[in-house]
Amino acid sequence: MSRVSKPYEIVERALELSTTDGLVVIADEHSSANLRWAGNALTTNGVTRGRTLTVIATADGAKGTASGVVSRSAVTADDLEPLVRAAEAAARGAGPAEDAQPLVSQVPSSPDFADAPAETGSEVFADFAPALGDAFARARSGGRELYGFANHELTSTYLGTSTGLRLRHDQPTGTLELNAKSPDRARSAWAGRSTRDFKDVDPAAMDAELAQRLRWAERRVDLPAGRYETLLPPTAVADLLIYQLWSSAARDAVEGRTVFSRPGGGTRLGETLAPLPLTLRSDPHAPGLESAPFVIAHSSGDSASVFDNGLPLAPTDWIRDGKLERLTTTRHSAALTGLPVAPAIDNLVLDGGGERSLEEMVAATTGRALLLTCLWYIREVDPATLLLTGLTRDGVYLVEDGQVVGEVNNFRFNESPVDLLSRAAEAGRTEKTLPREWGDWFTRAAMPALRIPDFNMSSVSQGV
Predict the structure, then answer these.
(1) CA distances from 14 to 87, 181, 261, 312, 351 (A)
(2) Are 154 and 19 in contact (CB under 8 A)?
(3) Which tens digit of pLDDT belongs to each residue from 263-302?
(4) 3-13: average pLDDT
(5) Burial class (CB in 10 A: 0-12, 13-18, 19+), 225
(6) Of 432, 433, 240, 422, which is closest to residue 324 (Cα–Cα)?
(7) For residue 421, which of 274, 280, 279 has the smallest C-alpha distance?
(8) Are 368 and 395 in contact (CB under 8 A)?
(9) What order do you get walking across the sheet with 431-433 strand by strand?
(10) pTM of the full predicted structure?
(11) Measured distance CA(454)–CA(359) in Å, rounded
């Protein structure tokens, strides 16, 4: 056998080796670069490269079509035949797959399918690193310490199938998290950004934001648990609505297991969930949030099917002008539920028509309200209502008549994102944001700040 090493060659050779009824091959070429810092000084940096190959074999039997999935990293030419045979054996040994569908076909090939994978490296930080060094100097002179990390990943995915698909997608993913602490570590503030290339992040602006928050925290006000008017920043809104998206499988709703189930049967599609004209949408071509324009499924689950690999994705409104418009479906679950095919897409945008920044929303506050920084340790309490619990982190601030007057203690909250949308009194300007809790899994989000009149701070937390 001739030696093969390029990703498309690996895909083609794996397909040639197939002896079952159908084969899907996904080659993911990964590269990453990162910087870490502590106490206003860089501590580590590194660059990595890697490859993961996923082979999905299908086998037709008297009772239906079965699938077998095997994934391995660092795959070479010598590993291909054993990997394909393992996937085929898994398919032949499995029972019929519930989500079985004909493999996708007749999708135009990507013109760059045979090109070398895109790669990232330390050069992605060419402009960012010096700006970060300047931020260290300002922080040092201002009596604060900066901690954090910057990470950039680039994954080139090559998808080939026995039905003729040859698709390619390059996905850059960048995250920046910056934490500022007072020298005695008693005060802490956090800011995060998502980026495709680190050309649109400004460490100086982030440091200035954190410095202001540390100044706010010089005054401490202890408050009891209760319901408070609360300003949720875009990062917190993203964390809540990403979990809502993950919980919006149509089949689960039809079977009466989720917040989107209609009492007595069916789903809540068409119901008004929010009085504000909120539109929650995903679009693989959203500027600055671009994601794969076709399904890439390494395994099957509630919202994904390996049989749908290569299925083209289109802009999808999940909520439109406040009404529930779509629930996530695979081709299989769409057929079961009688709903349109609406696969999950790897970005999420909430538009509410607002024009105010978070700072302007603070200034417009009358009376008393809380301003959050971010949420973390979010867990589900009740799937029937999508009640979530979690903690505030890195700064909760008291707003009185348009001015931040101090920092208050942290809280545990109990809220449902679906219920929050129904009670939101104002949506600010939509902007790109980095989810704090789900940033390791979902980074492409744009959200407005939301004003909630009665956010439920269920208990006081000792978290920081």
Answers:
(1) 11, 52, 43, 23, 44
(2) no
(3) 999 999 999 999 999 999 999 999 999 999 999 999 999 8
(4) 87
(5) middle
(6) 422
(7) 274
(8) no
(9) 323-324, 316-320, 279-282, 348-351, 445-447, 431-433
(10) 0.96
(11) 20
Tokens for 350, please give them.
């909430």
Q: How far apart are CA 442 and CA 308, in angstroms?
A: 21
Strand pairing class (226-232; 323-324): unpaired
Torsion sign across C-alpha atoms 100, 98, 332, 240: negative
Q: In residues, how long is the chain? A: 464
Q: Are 99 and 172 in contact (CB under 8 A)?
A: no
Estimate the crossing angle of helix 203-216 against helix 128-141, to 10 degrees: 30
**pLDDT tens-digit series, residues 30-81:** 999 999 999 999 999 999 999 999 999 999 988 899 999 999 998 888 889 9
Any residues with CB less than 8 A from the CB of 212 and at least 6 apart, and which? none
SS3 90: helix
CA–CA gap between residue 251 and residue 240 (Å, rounded)? 21
Token reading at 314: 């289109």
Predicted confidence (pLDDT) at residue 1 exceeds the cutoff of 70: no
Phi-psi region of 344 (alpha: psi -120 to 50; beta: other; left: phi over 0): beta
Q: Is the pLDDT of residue 318 over 70?
A: yes
**Strand ranges inside 255-299, DSSP E:** 279-282
Residue 109 three-state SS: coil
What is the DSSP secondary structure assignment for residue 197, as one 8-state letter?
S
CA 111 to chain centre: 28
Q: What average pLDDT does the structure give for the chain?
A: 96
**Cβ pair 362, 231 in contact under 8 A:** yes
Tokens describing residue 124: 């992605």
Largest CA distance in the chain: 76
Please name the amino acid found at residue 160: G
Beta bridge partners of 35: 45, 150
Q: What percent of the chain has pLDDT over 90?
A: 95
Q: E strand or H helix at 87, and its extent?
A: helix 77-93
Q: Are 189 and 397 in contact (CB under 8 A)?
A: no
Distance of CA 265 to the CA centre of its chain: 31
| Calpha distance 201→211 (Å, rounded) | 17
Average pLDDT over every residue of 398-412: 97
Residue 227 β-bridge partners: 456
Reading the block at residue 22, the tokens are: 């159908």
Rounded distance, CA 134 to CA 154, Å? 27
Confidence of residue 199 (pLDDT cuts 50, 70, 90): very high
Those residues whose C-beta lies under 8 Å from the C-beta of residue 97, and which sit 6 or more positions away, are: 58, 64, 65, 66, 67, 300, 307
Give Cα separations from 229 to 406, 424, 464 (angstroms).
16, 10, 21
